[in-house]
Amino acid sequence: MLTDKLREGAQGRVFKVLFWIIILSFIFAGVGNYLIPKLNTDPVKVGQYSIKSAEWTEQYNQRTQMMMKMYGSHAQAFLEDPKFVHNLRMQVLDSMIDNVALNSQTFENGIRIGDEQVKDAIRNDKRFYKDGKFNNELFLASVRNIGSSPDYYAEQLRTSLMTDTLVSPVIRNAQQPLPYELDNLANLFAQTRKVDMYSLNPEALKNSVKVSDDEALKFYESNHNLFMKPENAVFTYVVLSVDDLKKTVDAPKEKLEEYYRLNQDEFTVAQMREASQILIKPADDMKAKAEKVYAELKSGADFSIVAKEYSDDPDFETSHGSLGTVSRGTLSQALDKALFELSDVGAVSKIIYDNYGAHILRLDGILAEHVPDFKEIEEQVKKRYVDSKALALYNEKSATLTDISFENPDSLDAAAQACGVKVLNSGVVSAGDTSLAWPLNNADIQRAAFNEENRTSHVNSNVINLGDSACAVINVSEYHEAMLQKFDDVKEKAQSLALESKLQNEANNILTAFAKALKGDANTQIPENVSKKSDVLVTRSEANSDPMFVQDIYAIVDKAGDFVVSKDKGLPTLVILKEVSLDKENTLDNYKTFIRPQLSQYKASSTEGMLYQGARELTEISYNDDAIKLVEQQDGSAN
After folding, report:
1. What is the pTM of this model?
2. Three-class HEC string of 441-484
3. DSSP state of 40
4. Which among 204, 220, 199 has a CA at the least distance from the CA of 496?
5. Contacts for 624 with CB less than 8 Å, ≥ 6 apart
6. What is the DSSP string of 263-324?
7. Alpha carbon distance 573, 545 (integer Å)
8. How many Å apart are CA 242 and CA 392, to the nearest integer?
9. How many Cα atoms within 13 Å fall on the side-chain side of residue 429?
10. What is the secondary structure of 341-357 as a DSSP string?
11. What is the dotted CATH code of the domain comprising 44-174+619-635?
12. What is the rounded distance in angstroms from the CA atom of residue 268 to the CA atom of residue 258?
């Protein structure tokens, strides 16, 4: 029997040797495991609490899910950028450290949010109520739907309750602007400044300023960023677009007539109304005048005669008050409502008041809702038919493009053939080049072309949506990193930029020397090529100058005679302060109304930041760089 032979073999010498080899291997394996140190995978330790990698990842995932819900495909583009992902991950980690540090300090100071408080908060949350009472199954399902767990949700709620108990009252008290703060800021915002301006066009100095080869080389060496050849790529691509597919749609008359019959609602013309109005413009006697007009109309007076006598409509001579034929929603809400409430032709509305004055409308005619005859709208029917067929084709072919380009990743030939489009070659595409023809200038196409995975794998990209009516797939064949161009190749550019810089500096020096001379002698002669504007009034909202130029003017201390040399629209300009006054067109109360919410928000944010910073300083925080890198490597966000 087989079992007897196995039993006999188990008693043999060879079996016993093999048995002990296996036993010893287990023993040594076990000892070996004990000798290997346990890897610490906790990214940060905050006081006595360690933030776990899984917790960090969970919060990061929740943040990205929120982004996807809010911004859709736009968020996906950001989440494919390793630098953005790295920064987002670190923001999430910093926020977790803030919360843990604050909770640690409040706990150490005897402030507690107990389990019962957390449970009560959950039980009292109306989102988890069914039939008027708390439903545990609804709570568990809701927590699962947001990608969380009951324990984690409870801890998050504990943190929120701690914030409501401790942080929120402090912030509420601190965020209230004090009267003197509002007064000081309102006075600053209400300032106007009268100045003298002296401008010098650097071009006027060209004959006297030269740049040597050594100066050009020095400028080149100091400004490598200006002489970098941008990264570039070469790729093949296919494009599907609704517009191109429209050209392939056949539209025989019988098909158009069928589409017209089956889609009558698309061609239905809504009820329209002809109307006229009497307009009384805003004035002290507007209401009395409008009521007088309305009384005459109600007593049977002819609308046209009354309108000619009283209407302030500036176009009355040509329009005679007619508003033409209008559909619902064409007029303002109040006028629209009044007109479409009238039921009889010739009826007059009540008086309608708005910012333009007082209106009285007359219903002159009703064009009933109807479907125009096919012959009247044949071109419109054809357009709708072609659009709908092209969109259906686009949806079908874009699905085919997705599948075939994925199944045949090394080439776009199969996908192009299946979709009936050509494989195109991009030529050399430099990053950020918006001068190229569409779609090569599209930001999403370029983002895909320079995406590390796409440019290193040489396989087809995912389908790239180019708006709602076009998409593309690319396959990167060549990629070249950004590189510094040789000086000899950009010598002319270096000389031009060095000259521009030298001219600007020379102009600044001339204006600065002139300003210092003016302080000693008010009669100092204005330098050659310098133009002057006297008594220029500059407000903070000045629209005729560059924002940074205005900011530099307001950075001058409030002392007449002080100056700044800045640049406005490319021209070096000396500004000498003459007078500081207040904006007469706006009261300080107007500025306070504008400033109050912004100051309140700033103070709230600053107070919250100080609370977290204080908690951090009182808490020992240690970072585990290896664990942080390990987590980032999992999603490719590590630098």
Report:
1. 0.55
2. CCHHHHHHHCCHHHHHHCCCCCCEECCCCEEEEEEEEEEECCEE
3. -
4. 220
5. 40, 41, 42, 43, 44, 45
6. THHHHPBPPEEEEEEEEE-SSTTHHHHHHHHHHHHHTT--HHHHHHHH---TTHHHHTTEEE
7. 11
8. 9
9. 30
10. H--STT-BPPPEEETTE
11. 1.10.4030
12. 16
| Record: fold of 269-367 | Chitinase A; domain 3 (3.10.50)
Strands 563-568 and 272-280: unpaired
* Residue 73 host element (H or E): helix 73-79
pLDDT (0 to 100) of residue 28: 47
Tell which phi-psi region holds residue 346, choosing left (phi > 0), alpha (psi between -120 and 50) or beta.
Answer: left
Q: How confident is the model at residue 110 (pLDDT cuts 50, 70, 90)?
A: confident
Q: Is 492 exposed, middle or buried (0-12, 13-18, 19+ CB in 10 A)?
A: exposed
CA distance 465 to 457: 21
Token pair, residue 88, equals 């987002």
Q: Given this model, what pLDDT does residue 264 score?
A: 87
Residue 124 corresponds to which tokens in the numbers above? 């009292």
Mean pLDDT throughout 439-462?
92
Give burial (CB, 10 Å; 0-12/13-18/19+) of 27.
Answer: exposed
Kindly state the percentage of the chain with pLDDT values over 70: 92
H/E stretch holding 626 reads: helix 625-635
Domain boundaries defined on the chain:
2-35, 44-174+619-635, 191-224+490-582, 232-249+381-481, 269-367
Look-up of token digits 């199944």: 407
